[in-house]
Amino acid sequence: MIFTTAGEKGGSGRSTIAEHFTVWLSKQDFDVLLIDADEQGTASDFTAWREQTLDGNVGYTLVQLVGANLRKQVETMKSKYDHIVIDTGGRDTTSQRAALFVADVAIVPVQPRSHDIWTLAKFTEILDEIQSGRATPLTAYTFLNRADITSLDNRESAEALAGLEQMTFVDCAIKNRKAYPNAGASGLTVFEMGEKSDAKAINEITELFKRISHVNIPITA
Ligand SMILES: Nc1ncnc2c1ncn2[C@@H]1O[C@H](COP(=O)(O)OP(=O)(O)OP(=O)(O)O)[C@@H](O)[C@H]1O
Ligand SMILES: [Mg+2]
Q1: N- or C-end of the chain: fewer Cβ atoms within 10 A?
Q2: d(CA 87, CA 16)
Q3: Would you indicate the residue range of the signal peptide (predicted)?
Q4: Are 31 and 111 in contact (CB under 8 A)?
Q5: Which of 8, 14, 16, 193 maximizes ligand 1 atoms within 8 Å of its Cβ, making it the mutation to test the pocket?
Q6: Separation of 182 CA from ligand 1 center, angstroms?
Q7: C-alpha distances out from residue 24 to 41, 83, 134, Å
Q8: Is the pLDDT of residue 11 over 70?
Q9: Ligand 1 pocket check: which of 111, 180, 203 to mutate, most ligand atoms within 8 Å of Cβ?
C-alpha cells in the first residue's frame, strides 16, 4: 500500500505521523520505504538522527523525492516494498498533489485550532480535484493531532472533521504530549523509549494506525 500524509496547514503533525507510521509498519516486519517529499527535509533529518541513535539500523529505507516526477518514481519503486509512506510539506505543492495521485491512502492530521479547521475547506477542494483525476478513489482519513488532553475541549473540532464528505474522520485523537517531540529529538518514536515510555501515547497512536493502515497485524511490544 502507498500512504501519504497531506494537508495544507504547517505543523499539523504530518512528519511525526509519517515517521511513527513507518516505524510501526517496519516493526511488523514489513519492508517499508519512507519518501521525504518535503523540501524542508524533516523526515530525512529524523532518519539521520535515527541512524546515529541506532547505529545505522533505522529499520526502513529513506529516499528524498520532490516534484511532479515523484509519481512516476513511486510507480517504479512500489513493487520493491511492502509499503510506502510519503511525507509531504504543508502547502499545496506539486509534490503533495503527485503524492495524492499515486497513494492509496491519505493521512491528514489536523490540530483542533480554529485556523486549522478553516483552511480545511481549501484542502477538501484539492481532494475533490484529485479524486476526479484518479482512476480509483483515494481513501482519505482525518483525525485530530495535538489534541487537548480533556476530550471535551476537542469536541467542536471533531464535529467539524466528522462533517466533511471528502475524508473519513477517525475518532482517535492523538493528544498533545511531550512524548512525541522527546522521542523525535533522537530519531526515535514513542514505541522505542524503553523506561521513558508513555503508555498513553503508545496506545493512542497504535489504535489510530490499526484503524487507518488496512494492515491486520497487531504491533508486537
Ligand atoms: N501529538 C503531538 N504532541 C506534541 N507535539 C507534537 C505532536 N505532534 C507533533 N508534535 C510536534 O509539533 C511540531 C510539528 O510537527 P511535525 O513536524 O510533525 O508537523 P508537520 O505537519 O510535518 O510540519 P511541517 O509543516 O513543518 O511539515 C514538531 O515539533 C512535533 O514534534
Ligand atoms: Mg513535516
Answers
A1: C
A2: 9
A3: none
A4: no
A5: 16
A6: 11
A7: 20, 11, 28
A8: yes
A9: 180
For the chain, domains (ranges, CATH) are 2-212 (3.40.50.300)
Please say whether the beta carbons of 32 and 81 come within 8 A: yes
For residue 143, what is its C-alpha cell?
483525525
Instruction: Report the phi/psi class of residue 63: left, alpha or beta, with left for phi > 0 and alpha for psi in -120 to 50.
Output: beta
- Model confidence pLDDT, tens digit, residues 34-70: 999 999 999 999 999 999 999 999 999 999 999 989 9
Q: Are 114 and 147 in contact (CB under 8 A)?
A: no
Pocket of ligand 1 (CB under 6 A): 10-16, 38, 40, 42, 89-90, 145-146, 174, 176-177, 180-181, 184
Give the pLDDT score at 216: 59
> How much helix, strand and coil, in percent to the nearest 5, is found in the chain?
45, 20, 35
H-only helix segments in 133-198? 155-162, 179-184
Under 8 Å between Cβ of 189 and 17: no
- Residue 220, pLDDT > 50, answer no
CA-11 nearest atom, ligand 1: 23
Nearest to 173 by CA among 129, 219, 204: 204
Separation between Cα atoms, residue 31 and residue 208, nearest integer Å:
20
How far, in Å, from the CA of 142 to the mean position of ligand 2?
A: 16
